[in-house]
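User: Before I run my own analysis I want an independent prediction to cross-check against. Here's the chain; please return only the structure tokens and, at the end, one sentence I can use as a sanity check.
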Amino acid sequence: MCKLDYSDYYSGNHYNLFLIAVIIVEKCNAILKTLQREVMKKTCIFVFLFFVCLSGKCFSASDWRDVTNNLAGGEFYSIKEGPAGNFLYVGTSYGLYKVGERRKEWEGVFLCKGKDKGVYGICLSGKNEIYIGTGSGLYKSVDRAASWRRIFKIREPGNRCTSVEFLPHKNRIYLGTLKGLFWTEDGGKAWHRKTGIMGNCEIKSITTDIRQGSSSIFIICGNGLYKTGESTTGYEKIFGFRYGEENSSDDESEDTGDYAESESTFLLNEVIFKNGILYLCTSKGLYISDSSGETWRRFNDAGLTKAEVKCVYPEKKIGCIGSIFAAAEKGVFIYREGKYAWEEIDTGMDSWNIKKLLADASHDYIYVLCKNKIYKMNIRDLEDVAGDLPNKDISSVFGHEPTVDEVRTMALAYAEVQPDKIERWRRQAKLKAILPKVVIGVDCSRSDTYEIYTSSSQSYWLYGPRDKTEGWDLSLSWD
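Assistant: Structure tokens:
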């Protein structure tokens, strides 16, 4: 192989410049090769980690399964399971639909008519009776939705049914509307309206606490939670605001106070009674009471992406899990016994604006009702969701962290506000008050005098003596 002597073609300065250019090109090639190796290495690492995370997600939890199927169009408002667990009912803006345990296609069993459409509340009583609250009134079926009869008619413009609750031992039906609470004890032949504030404002949610010998009804009216017993007249406010009380003299004079914030920032969304505990969903978190609303405590909200809780579905035991399911507008969470934070389980959902949560009678599935989608997930698969926190004393989790005293000492040192420094400032401030405030003023002015004379034949001017004044002043003041 012959070696080309570039000196034959380049000489002097040109040859030196050529050598420099060759060296630069070789260095650039070496740098590019090194960069290519680094990029390839980082790309491989990224792809590897991506597939590891993807496989971990796929095998750690079951995604939500869309069970909307042919139930398309309109907006979804309510969901309820049949008494025997053999049917699932969903109320939409078009009507009421049901699906069997082994069927996939939804069947329309009630079609809304007129301009005030929508099934907003569903209540099941016994094996065959179904009540549905709609935009035009309350309908009842005694043959599993085969036929319907309207037992309450909406007569006020802008009103509609919002919720329905049945008190079996009294054969009493409570019907919530946008303009008050109604009740009947004779199957809808005669309806009565609650007096006071509960007969005039929006009823958002109703739940019952039925125990041996007594029963209590809890109602979100306006933006307050009220409690009433089997009596059809008295009630008391146990949480929230005095919503619209200026229009009513029958409202209770007592307020909870501890939870009273401005109405625009603290909203009550839903109330549920289950397993001896009252659950209240608010825009500021979940509150619970085990004393029928006499005392409340705010539930742990660690892990929730937002404080607002729209709805919950509590279960003391679901399979082998003690759980509370909660939904915000964009997310479903689970809180399990022995844990210290909520875990998000909304993987696989492509529709939001969650309306309701429901667990089936066999406690195998949890359903999520969204604005126009229905999802379900196998509850038993939630054992692997999000990784379990160790079931041990919470203090051991933060054992490596500095103590409170150490953090306080470091914060004082960083801000340079040690107690002795503050005390020194105070002493200096006291001593400063002994000395007066001194104000010294000096002023000096000079002026010249000129006189000008003119006549028809001549003019002249005179310069007078210069005036000079000087002065000074001193003032002392104490505060």
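Sanity check: Residues 1-11, 52-61, 242-261, 385-392 have pLDDT under 50 and may be disordered.
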